[in-house]
């Protein structure tokens, strides 16, 4: 159900040109929010997302900024302040990772993964809070991963960054609650994206069927499923949810693999 109470609100969704970020940006736009579409490398899909938002009657701007770099975060928020003068919603979705075993991790890849996946949330939040205080309230949602608490193959750099992201979520939630800024996280399971479909087609065609067989709800999570939960956490109805990580995986992590 669309939430008209987001009308007039402004939302930043990092990494919103594709996949989950795109679905979140479109859902918030359908609920009435104007959107800052952010990307780091691929401009075309970001512009396409912005065009779809405008077709919904919402305002959209596209800002290139690699949030793994503090100077780019500064640029991102300077642009937001100049264009909108405020920010109501911040969704930290941009992510990266170098998938290899712990003993093969290299410093550059490790540092870059931590910077994009967790540090960016903290430093973006520092920039977002003054803009949210202008309105007397705000919402932040970080996109995490089950790898924050489960050991997944070759996932240590991402898993560690997501564990850090969830800790930052809890600390920000407590620190900002008095300012009526609501901070939570969403942890999707394996999501049916183009990337997953490409990977399975190239290396493991049976992967989607195996995942579905181990999901009690009988299907894979879609980007829209994740976006629905994010939209709820960005609405007044979620006011008493504070510092929580909401798992969206159709029950996959509850059962032993078959």
From TrEMBL:
Alphabetic keyword roster: Oxidoreductase
EC identifiers of the protein: 1.3.1.10
Domain of life: Bacteria
InterPro entries given in the database record: NAD(P)-bd_dom_sf, SDR, SDR_fam
GO MF annotations in UniProt: enoyl-[acyl-carrier-protein] reductase (NADPH) activity
UniProt cross-references to NCBIfam families, sorted A to Z: PRK07231.1, PRK08063.1
PANTHER family: 3-OXOACYL-(ACYL-CARRIER-PROTEIN) REDUCTASE, 3-OXOACYL-[ACYL-CARRIER-PROTEIN] REDUCTASE FABG
Family to which this protein belongs: Belongs to the short-chain dehydrogenases/reductases (SDR) family.
Protein name: Enoyl-ACP reductase
Protein source organism: Leptolinea tardivitalis
């Amino acid at each position: 159900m669309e939430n008209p109470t987001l009308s007039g609100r402004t939302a930043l969704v990092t990494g919103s040109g594709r996949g989950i970020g795109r679905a979140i940006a479109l859902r918030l736009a359908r609920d009435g929010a104007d959107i800052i579409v952010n990307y780091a490398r691929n401009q075309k899909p970001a512009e396409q997302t912005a065009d779809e938002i405008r077709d919904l009657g919402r305002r959209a701007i596209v800002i290139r900024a690699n949030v793994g770099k503090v100077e780019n975060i500064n640029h991102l928020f300077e642009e937001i302040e100049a264009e909108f003068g405020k920010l109501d919603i911040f969704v930290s979705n941009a992510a990266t990772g170098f998938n290899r075993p712990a003993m093969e991790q290299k410093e550059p890849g490790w540092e870059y993964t931590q910077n994009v996946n967790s540090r960016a949330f903290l430093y973006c939040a520092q920039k977002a809070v003054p803009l949210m205080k202008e309105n007397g309230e705000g919402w932040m949602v970080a996109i995490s991963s089950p790898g924050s608490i489960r050991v997944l193959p070759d996932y240590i750099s991402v898993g560690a960054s997501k564990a850090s992201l969830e800790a930052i979520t809890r600390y920000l939630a407590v620190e900002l609650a008095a300012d009526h800024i609501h901070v939570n996280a969403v942890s999707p399971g394996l999501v049916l994206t183009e990337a997953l479909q490409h990977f399975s087609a190239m290396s493991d065609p049976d992967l989607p069927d195996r995942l579905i067989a181990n999901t009690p709800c009988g299907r894979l999570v879609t980007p829209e499923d994740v976006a629905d939960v994010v939209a709820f956490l960005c609405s007044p109805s979620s006011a008493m949810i504070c510092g929580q990580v909401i798992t969206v995986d159709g029950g996959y992590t509850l059962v032993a693999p078959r």
